Amino acid sequence: EIVLTQSPGTLSLSPGERATLSCRASQSVSSSYLAWYQQKPGQAPRLLIYGASSRATGIPDRFSGSGSGTDFTLTISRLEPEDFAVYYCQQYGSSPPRSLTFGGGTKVEIK
Amino acid sequence: EVQLVESGGGLVQPGGSLRLSCAASGFTFSSYWMSWVRQAPGKGLEWVANIKQDGSEKYYVDSVKGRFTISRDNAKNSLYLQMNSLRAEDTAVYYCARFKAYEDLELLVYYYGMDVWGQGTTVTVSS
Fold first, then answer.
1. Mutation choice for A interface testing from B4, B65, B114, B115 by most A CBs within 10 A
2. Which of A46, A88, A95 is nearest residue B44 as measured by Cβ atoms?
3. pLDDT exceeds cutoff 90 at B104
4. DSSP string spanning B74-98?
């Protein structure tokens, strides 16, 4: 089973600042089968990024994903007030997805 | 409107059973892999189970194998999770989610993402 480790656990930033979130896998993630999600309190998660770097429908271009192999990054270029939330990475190992794992999450909070 | 609506959660004693349902609308349910994901109070997301479009393939996280069964009824546009032998550690909000396939025409590969989620249903296992 591939374990995803997200860092930092909490990121304290101000609106307008750049956020860089890391997701490290215990072994190589096949073909960049990695996605990122945003979750706000009391809400279901929302898909941001699939295939490590492609934005899902309706996701603003301030969100970008990069990386391959075992190291992946989600970058929010300029934080908007609505971006303060918890972010999760997810890998699924094969296409189509059979088993999958989530990272532990990174909370982006207002400084 | 594309929508998933879960139901069936509640309070159950350890060792008991519950059946969760997820009603899909606004899209061709039979064309998608579907999934259950849970979130324990104050914790992160945990994948529980996946099922193929026609129900012929099912996959589970190790902690629920032999206790939970995912199924679907494409005629009723519904996804289910039968949960038996429930434990305190199964206490969570349970979400159903749709897996959307995104084709990369250059690399000839499909990427997937859970692009539609329900609002969740709460399962509490306690005596």
1. B114
2. A88
3. no
4. TTTTEEEEEE-S--GGG-EEEEEEE
Strand B10-12 versus strand B121-125 pairing type: parallel
Q: Identify the pLDDT of residue A31.
A: 73
Q: Around A34, how many Cα atoms within 13 Å sit in the side-chain half-sphere? A: 31
Chain-centroid distance of CA B36 in Å reads: 2
Tell me: the pLDDT tens digits for A9-62? Answer: 999 999 999 999 999 999 999 878 999 999 999 999 999 999 999 999 999 999
Query: Does residue B108 have a pLDDT over 90?
Result: no
**Cβ–Cβ under 8 Å, residues B121 and B9:** yes
Give the chain A residue whose CA is nearest to the CA of B98.
Answer: A47
If pLDDT is split at 50, 70 and 90, which confidence band does B53 have? very high
In angstroms, rounded to a whole number, what is the distance separating the alpha carbons of residues B97 and B33? Answer: 9
What are A108's two structure tokens? 């982006």
Choose among B31, B46, B1, B6: nearest CA to B99: B31
Residue A86 burial class via C-beta count within 10 angstroms: exposed 0-12, middle 13-18, buried 19 and up: buried
Q: Residue A49: name the closest of A73, A31, A30 by CA.
A: A73
Token pair listed for A55: 């934005």
What is the four-CA torsion angle of B40, A89, B7, B43, rounded to 10 degrees? 10
